[in-house]
Amino acid sequence: MAEEKNIFVEDFKSGMEITTFLMVKAASLKIDSRKREYVDFTLADRSGEVNAKKWDVTAEEKPHLSEIKEGDIIKVKAQVSEWQGQTQLRILRVRKSTSADGLDMNDFIKSAPEPSEDMYQFIMDVAESLKDEDFKKVSLTLLERNKDRLMYYPAAAKNHHAEYGGLLWHMKRMLMSGDALCGVYTFLNRDLVLTGVIIHDMEKLNEIDAGENGMATGYSFIGQLLGHIVQGTASMKSLGEELGIPYEKIVLLQHMILTHHYEPEYGSPKKPMFPEAELLHYLDIMDARMYDMEDAVSSVEKGAFSERVWTLDNRRIYKPTF
């Protein structure tokens, strides 16, 4: 029996038949093992995303399906199932939405839990609080020059903080944690830690392709060939020369960008070689993991486990009863 109301991804359960509206994050025509064409979708709303398949595409359906692009809102009738521990949709019928559907775009765009303007002002206040004038100049320059895109940019194409304002949200919580830990580990240079937080992912603005709706559509040309770590290291050198920042300070900031992923397989050719760079890595991974943990249990009832989360080593996350 179909669910006639519009429901969100977080409410999908295996065995349901649903009729609902979803945003297209990706769509590609593929061929299965029996040489039949099908469309592989990644669909989303504000509550999450889901993989969907339109099997056995006929010659009559192909032109219609080929018109569906990233960013479109579509209405689907589908059967909900589970594949390798992940929810999946088998699409029975699909059409693009029209103005007559009266949709609210806020239902389809996942956003950080705080207004971008508030997060940006918090980060600017942290930058203004820096006592080292060189680090303050670097931080304020990058924040001011990139303000417009920071208002909406995600921190990832997929996974943690892949949402409207996600880069600001990631940055803000890392700054909060970093500032607190500098009060514990008092030998750390607070200005260096917090500047490292502000700059470490700034080149994601050029690595990721994203529209003003905050939805990432993939990676840019330079993002695919270089990535935000290499881009960030190079841009920091140029900025340092432009602003007249002492050589040692710029090299330290470059090192923090270069090492914050820690392992070569994650993009860092070297590991941190001073305490503030070491802390930056753990602030980054902690915020990413906590985001994924929170997201995993957000739609789970108390006393139940989430579905397996690939970014958390394929673990199922438990939500306590209290």
Write the layout of secondary structure elements.
Blueprint: E1 2-3, E2 17-31, E3 37-45, E4 48-54, H1 61-66, E5 73-83, E6 86-96, H2 116-129, H3 133-145, H4 147-150, H5 166-184, H6 190-200, H7 204-207, E7 208-210, E8 216-219, H8 221-225, H9 227-243, H10 247-259, H11 275-297, E9 305-309, E10 315-318
Parallel strand pairs: 1-2, 4-6
Antiparallel strand pairs: 2-3, 2-5, 3-4, 5-6, 7-8, 9-10
Helix pairs in contact: 2-3, 2-5, 3-6, 5-6, 5-11, 6-10, 6-11, 9-10, 10-11
**What is the spatial order of strands in the main beta sheet?**
2-3-4-6-5
The count of strands amounts to 10
Mean pLDDT: 92
Helical content band: 40-55%
* End-to-end C-alpha gap: 35 Å
| Count of helix runs | 11
Report low-confidence residues grouped into runs of 5 or more. Answer: none
Q: Provide the structure class.
A: alpha+beta
Largest beta-sheet details: 5 strands, mixed, barrel
Note the quaternary state here.
single chain
User: What is the string of helix and strand elements?
Assistant: EEEEHEEHHHHHHEEHHHHEE
What is the strand content?
15-25%
Dominant shape? elongated
Textual characterization of the structure:
The protein is of the alpha+beta class. The chain is 40% helix and 22% strand. It is built from eleven helices and ten strands. It has helices at residues 61-66, 116-129, 133-145, 147-150, 166-184, 190-200, 204-207, 221-225, 227-243, 247-259, 275-297, and strands spanning 2-3, 17-31, 37-45, 48-54, 73-83, 86-96, 208-210, 216-219, 305-309, 315-318. The strands form three sheets. A five-stranded mixed beta barrel has the order 2-3-4-6-5. The chain has a two-stranded antiparallel ribbon with strand order 7-8. Helix 9 runs antiparallel to helix 10. The two termini are 35 Å apart. The mean pLDDT is 92.
